[in-house]
Design brief:
407 residues, mainly beta, Sulfite Oxidase, Chain A, domain 2, Immunoglobulin-like, 3 domains, five-stranded mixed β-sheet, five-stranded antiparallel β-sheet, binds the ligand Nc1nc2c(c(=O)[nH]1)N[C@H]1C(S)=C(S)[C@@H](COP(=O)(O)O)O[C@H]1N2, binds molybdenum atom
Length: 407
Amino acid sequence: MKSRRNFLKRTSIAALGTLVGARIVFADNLPKGYTPVALQDVDPFELFGKHREMVVLNNRPWNIESLPHLLDDRITPNEKMFIRNNGLIPQDIDITKWTLTIDGESVAEPKTFTLAELKSKFPQYTYQLTLECGGNGRKEFNPPAKGNQWADSAISCAEWTGIRLSDVLNDAGVKSNAVYIGYYGADVHLTGNPDKVVISRGAPMAKAMQDETLLAFKMNGEDIPLAHGYPLRLVAGGWPASVSGKWLKRISVRNVVHDGPKMEAPSYRVPCEPIAPGDKVADEDMCIIESMPVKSLVTYPKTGAMLNLGKTLTLRGHAWAGELEVKKMEYSIDFGATWSQCELEKPVNRLAWQHFKAQVSFPERGYYEVWAKATDNNGKSQPMVLPGWNPKGYLNNACHRIAVKVN
Ligand SMILES: Nc1nc2c(c(=O)[nH]1)N[C@H]1C(S)=C(S)[C@@H](COP(=O)(O)O)O[C@H]1N2
Ligand SMILES: [Mo]
């Protein structure tokens, strides 16, 4: 055993030498598992085609956040879309061999489709769908919650093209006892263990069968970029984006609430009843996050904007409300004491974000904050400050605020 390990160690050092293009002279001193700097130096912006201002939160797994002013486009381009991975991006994808299997206790007959079959057999639909990470805004919670410290821009609304999950499930046949679907993707666990599933989440049948729940193969009219789930991904807009499984290989139709990795508490769950910051919650008192709460983002101007007195400021942004629609959009320049109405557009389709704008004027020189507040069609508004603390730091839908200086 010992000699075999030494042998492996020696060959991998030789291999590293080949990769860096020279013999590593003091290779014997390399700490175990250390990657030479020459090989650490990948440029994520180039690798993923991302805008240089994007913020890298983690490189193993890759987690990259956008910024509010980068999200000004009506439809989020790849360049400005956040990446959230729980594992390693699959490599060497051969789309001619890619298949999707529908199985589980509640499927009439397990069925496997090739990608080509999926594309030719079922009608295709295109929707703009809002995908927000459940942990977007986590950074603000105190006591801090572990996990990627997303500020406010783990949110996108791209145009997704694919087939309806409902069409494929109906083709395979769904038994009347079906409760939930669960997805499986081709990404690789951080340990490298091929038998370990990275993440396998899902949704109740009612969400799975919605018209807008897609098995998508295009994003913004092109093949989905690798980091976002090429060649096939589930897209379930309005729910935590963790439901939208990337690199999709299999969907299980379950007769129970799906119990794959990261379905169980405390992942993607919040206390069923509000708790005090820092309190402990028993697993059985945690509830699965479903529709995301009402929220908005000012995408123009960038925070820190300067303006001359007498000029009006054009404010722009997007608002969304999970399964619901945003009915009212307001802004405040006096720290929430009074609110004025923004112009708000209807969504292009259900589950797409909505665009707003306003002409803002300021009474005198000085420092201001512009706060933005959306209200959904149930009459629920964004809280001005942090909403309920929860152990994993999910669902922070506090009003977005930008600083403006009037000279
Ligand atoms: N297979 C797979 N699907 C996944 C994930 C993952 O790690 N593996 N992460 C989920 C989470 S938590 C989020 S927020 C979204 C992010 O999608 P994006 O990277 O395309 O923005 O993908 C979801 N789908
Ligand atoms: Mo997420």
